[in-house]
Amino acid sequence: MLLVKPETIAAYTAKGWWCQQTLWDLFVQQVSARGDAEAVVDACNRSDFAHGPQRRLSWRQLGEDVDKFSLVLLQQGLLRDDIVVVHLPNCVEQYVVYLACARLGLIVTPVPAQYREHELAHILTITEAAAAITFTHIGRIGHSHQAAAMYLTLGAAHASLSKVLAWGPDAPAGVVSIEAAWPGALTAGQQAQLAQAERNAAVTANDVFSICWTSGTEAAPKGVPRSHNEWLIVPPSIIEAGQLELGARLLNPFPLVNMSGLSSALATWLVLGGTVVQHQPFSLSVFLQQLREERIDYTVAAPAILNMLLQDDRLLAGIDFQRLKRIGSGSAPLSQWMVCGFAERHGVQIVNYFGSNEGAALSGGDIDIPDPALRAQYFPRVGVPGLEWSVSTTRKIKTRLVDLTSGADITEAGQPGELRFQGPTVFSGYFKAPELTARAFDEQGFYRTGDLFEIAGDQLQYYRYVGRSKDLVIRGGMNISSEEIEGLLAACPGVQEVAVVGVPDRILGEKLCACVVSAPGQTVSLGDLVQFLRGQKRVAAYKLPEYMLQIDALPRNPVGKILKRELREQARTLASEAV
Questions:
Q1: Structural domain containing residue 450
Q2: Contact at 8 Å (CB) between 20 and 204?
Q3: How far apart are CA 294 and CA 271, in angstroms?
Q4: Residue 162 CB-density burial (10 A; 0-12 exposed, 13-18 middle, 19+ buried)
Q5: CA gyration radius for the chain?
Q6: Is residue 106 within 8 Å of 76, Cβ to Cβ?
Q7: Which of 446, 468, 490 is at the close of a domain?
């Protein structure tokens, strides 16, 4: 499936930014070059969220599993350009699925393990996915979610979903047990079948590999398709900013379902020929254990986690900071105290990241911004004539800062505006959503991030993040659309009006607070809201409000717009009282 315009492909190929190599081509090269080296490692607490023991696979072993799973996909009649929903926690099986699909030209649409019927029904409607790949159960035995059975139910309402494939015990009738279908040692005939299937698929680097999902101001998730080339243009910004070497060992605590996880733990991993150690779900004790025991060279962590670690040096004891010299962070402003503290006490440089599923990204590393205090606040002002930076990706994109009132370009310091991007890292449009795509790009073809920045620095060389113009709450690195949750809660019994805001949380960054005006003569509790969303609307658990603010009326400006700044200030008191 080709979605990028031919003229765009031609232009980026002519510049040498895009090439002919696919993700699968890169994997084959690494298997040949690094066969016995460790490739992927399960989280040590796998039994907390999945069946079976922790697994460690070399590149060659991973290749053998990919061969066998490719045969399973072929046996199920799945063909090039079929879309498959991948609903898995962070585990080695994700790599088996992604690589087999890259090989055969199937398009993966990965979803967070927490997604339930509400989110999935929308995704299945838009994609018309032919199959779902999951576990029979996700979660600890006795407290697990029956994921495979859920897809059987969804299939009754979505005719395109003809196959549900699952790893794990007790596969329900109608679900293809992957273990039962798993072939033994491949015969010459099966190897020939795979080779022929590859030739028939004829996957190119400009074919769509994935459709990831992002939440914005619209209530429903939006599909972001990315080709092999659109993924492989990203790793240099991670490798160069993190100064990573070939074979680096990476610890991945982000869900392997969107830009944050796939860019580093799939695309960058393939380029480096490194090792990915998976982490799921986030557990501080497990995270620290992995940093100590797995010889990690690079990882990423939310600012709140890094703040906590620096406040208690005992937590960092035993970590080899001669290896782990850089840690990526982002999704929220960084503390100057934290960035400086890691550099001064441990010699660790924090790389400041800003990014989106759509491919807009900034990275502030110590080469370009040596002063940790500055790096906590600023990003390189990339894509602007006259300013040069070390990361090669910065020479392939353009940015502009735009006044949202006048539409004029901002070129002076101190004036907030929307940051916009253009270039080969930026997606070409939302999947089957032309109206959303039209609104996402301006008249010059720049992607509108919806994020506010201002120009800073003595040479106007930096961007400084100011805030979000889009109404999002970011909980543990996961974007949650306030509008989506507001729309659902509007139907909750006892609710007359509701607005959803984020409140600070020292672990997750933000948590949801529902600000509720009760219907006359009725009362509603936080438990009522949660039960309604979980029980009736089948919403993912991470989207459930964890605070409720009962108010008599929503504050509004003279034209009727809800003043969420006032609600956030009121909601902050709930968070502080809970500490």
A1: 236-468
A2: yes
A3: 20
A4: middle
A5: 24
A6: no
A7: 468
Same domain, 93 and 190: yes
Residue 217: the pLDDT is 42
What are the CA-CA distances from residue 233 to residues 102, 126, 374, 423, 451 (Å)?
Answer: 16, 27, 27, 10, 22
State the pLDDT at residue 211. Answer: 98
pLDDT at 390: 95
Amino acid identity for residue 92 in this structure:
V
| DSSP track, 401-415 | EE-TTT-PBP-SBT-
Instruction: Check if the beta carbon of residue 182 is closer than 8 Å to that of residue 93.
Output: no
Strands of 349-355's sheet, edge to edge? Answer: 56-58, 38-41, 275-278, 249-252, 298-300, 326-330, 349-355, 361-364
How far lies 424's CA from each of 16, 17, 289, 312, in Å? 11, 7, 38, 42
Alpha-carbon distance of 45 to 56, in angstroms, equals: 13
Residue 301: both structure tokens together: 């962590």
Are 462 and 494 part of one and the same domain? no
* Cα–Cα distance measured from residue 579 to residue 572, given in angstroms and rounded to the nearest whole number: 11
Give dist(CA 320, CA 324) in Å, integer. 6
Domain total in the chain = 3
531 and 490 together in one domain: yes
CA distance 524 to 518: 7
AA letter at 226:
R
Same-domain status, 459 and 484: no
What SS3 state is found at 133?
strand
Nearest to 367 by CA among 396, 388, 342: 388
> Which residue type, as a one-letter code, is found at position 309?
L
The pLDDT, as a whole number, for residue 192 is 97
Residues of the chain falling short of pLDDT 70: 141-142, 215-219, 468-470, 557-561, 577-579
Phi, psi of 507 (to 5 degrees): -95, -50
User: Where is 108: in which H helix or E strand?
Assistant: strand 107-110
